Amino acid sequence: MSFDWEFSIIEWSIIAVVIFAWYIHDKYVQRKHQLLVNYPIIGRLRFLLEEVREPFRQYFGDEKFYESKDKLDWLNKACRDLPNYASFSPSQPLPYPKFMIRHANIVLNEDEVEGGFEVTFGPRRKKPFISKSIIGRSAMSDGSISPEGTRAFAKGALEGKFPINTGEGSVTSNFFVTHQNYKADYMKVVHGTKFEKRIKDVVQFFFNGAVAADVYRKLVFGKDPEAETYIFDLQSSLFHRINWDAPLESFPKEVPTDLPDITFQISSGLYGARDKNGKFDPVRYEKVMRFCRMTEIKMAQGAKQTGGKLAGHKVTPAIAYYRGVEAYKDVFSPNRFPYANSIEELFDFIGQLQQISEKPVGVKIVISDLDNIEPYAKEIKKRIDQGKDSYPDYIAIDGGSGGSATAPIETMERVGLDIKDSIYLVDKVLSEYGVRDKVKLVASGKVLTPDDVIIIMSLGADFIQIARGFMMSAGCIRARYCSGTTGHDCPVGLATQNKSKRKKYFVHKQARKVANYHKNLLKSVKGMLAIMGLKRVDQLNKHRIMFIDKDAKVYDNMDDVFKRKLKIGRDLGDDYHEHG
Prior knowledge:
Helices cover 35% and strands 12% of the residues. By secondary structure, it is of the alpha/beta class. The chain starts with 8 loop residues before the first helix and ends in a 15-residue tail after the last helix.
């Protein structure tokens, strides 16, 4: 193949005039960019490189945020269900300091390791939740995530048999994408005409189901701003959404089996569980919990100690409908949970939720020091001694190292301990107060690979929640445009409400990758247990790991390690030093 690059004199003259005019504009006309005055035209290369820096950063340098690029490679292979082995040596060895696992002299074969990874939350409740996995997808709000992204996660969670956390955006229609065996009593169903269905069939024949569904939705709903609050079932050609105005008696008594295991997160905004005045609505909450396994009260999150933030351009009419707010206006949750002006008030509210739902209720916090967990431990012990059970069934601890969505940069690395320090401290405090066996510990914070799971569970966690890992398994390329406040949108359509981007997101393909990621995490955790000589995951403890500090010194006692790492202001048992 050859190209004719010859231009006529006129064409060359036009190009020269354009470049000269551009030069004059940059040097003598514009007064916005100082750089262009000194370097007309060529100076614009700087702005081009700045624009592509974030999306392309990961391709041209060693990984700085997730310990090593090899961990990301593992994730990418796991979600595609590819063989996950390395050759010769790691391309980027894990830096010191780092934790190491202890292997056994006589290891096990993988078939000798028990495959059950169940975790029971709230055994004291009338309806405890038995998770089929030690791993769940962490909180991601429908709103910060696109509708298509939420559907992919819901499908992947049902297929993979692991729990999924709603985030503070509440239970939306997109979590019900797999729910087809419903009763019309609690569902609002919309039919299209025969003519509209015929057009849909024709479009599907020539294109695909996604395009056909989009065309059909526009035909059926026209300009209805709430059109996207309905889920479309391609087989039945019906649109449906939960009718929250239906009487409580119409809602299912048990969670439908064609739904994933959902944890309903309730934040300071009370979205999904509030009335028109923004107050807690116990009836609405009970309706929501007919579809969820347990509740998580969000007191804090690694990325958002200031309360969740959703920029106005992401608050579409559908998101506004779900949250009970005004469309296209910023939704910034209050910093303080409205029913938590004290630990005692928070626990009373937890008890109220436990009584209404008859299901486990937990609390999500971030740890900076002892003062963040000791009041919880004291109140739990006090209530147990009083014969009360109105205390958290689990405590979810988020690492303080940034976040995957919208958060103030000034708090990302300045508030909260790393998850390893946090989980050790919380496990230690609850044990010192004699209440550790009453509360499950859930951990999250930069968990990507099976070795991360093993280390954090060895330090005291009962369950792991993952956000970033699941995001990347669902197609995230870490362009860091999640908030949409930079003038750019998520390029893959996962974390944006931009229709032109998100409509091209492959829901079914990404759902399978999400399920594969979870499957291979558990498979590799089982493999690591085998070389540690352990038959069950609950045999993990702090004596199963070691620590190598930045000077390559090896420590085989975790209590000694954390004595040095966590120099707190007062003693806690025999395992802590006085500060200074």
